[in-house]
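Re-run with default settings, no changes from the original entry. Doing this only to confirm the output is reproducible before filing.
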Amino acid sequence: MKRASKLYTALIFLFLFAPIAILLLFSFNETKSLSVFSGFSLKWYRELFRDGDTLESLKNTLILACSSSVIATVMGTAAAVGIDKLRSKYARAAINTVTNIPMTNPDIITGISLMLMFVFIGGRLGLSSSLSFWTMLMSHVTFCLPYVILQVLPKLRQMDPALPEAAMDLGCTPMQAFFKAELPEILPGIVTGLIMAFTLSLDDFVISYFTQGNGFQTLPIRIYSMTKKTVTPKMYALSTIIFFVILALLLLSNLQDERADNRLRQSKHNERR
């Protein structure tokens, strides 16, 4: 039974990570071949940094991902604090249900509905172009927001509710109590939500495709346009770099969560003593 479970786990990991391993391997291939590894080379990494259009798309993607993740994190943290302070369980359940809709709704439905809304509003305002960088930014904030709320809410529920009250008893205003007492306790959830929002925005194609404006192209859209001709190994090199960046962010997030759990266990241990 143990051997079967280990074999099953190994097959699952093989299924998940074999495509990434092949991508990493052939990003260092000397030729364009996807079936024969002819030799180790950094050729495609050098070619990548000479491709101005791809680097411009990467810059646009990073600007969009950083902007939307920061805005979604601030708004999501504020929303989570507000939801946590609701006294009515029915109102809280209703808001949680509404918040979860963007996560369960298919991306194509979200993208088309946002596009129609922006076109309608742009037509009413008499704008020459209804879609732009700002419409993409608002769209990315919209679908990232629930994920931030989902990460921050559990941390608020784990926190001792007496902390902000104690801070206010010691002379803090409600805002000072939040920043000095509550924020350090929920910071791991905020950081995790920020990283999740960043990776979701970085990866998005469908919603970006429907809400993009002229002159602003993200990396997933550029790669899609390249598939109509051919995807060169430069994209393997770029994907490898992005993979290791995201891996580093996830490791930092896990370390942050581990430190927070250790502090929580230590505080509980001290209380028992």
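The first helix runs from residue 2 to 26. The radius of gyration is 23 Å.
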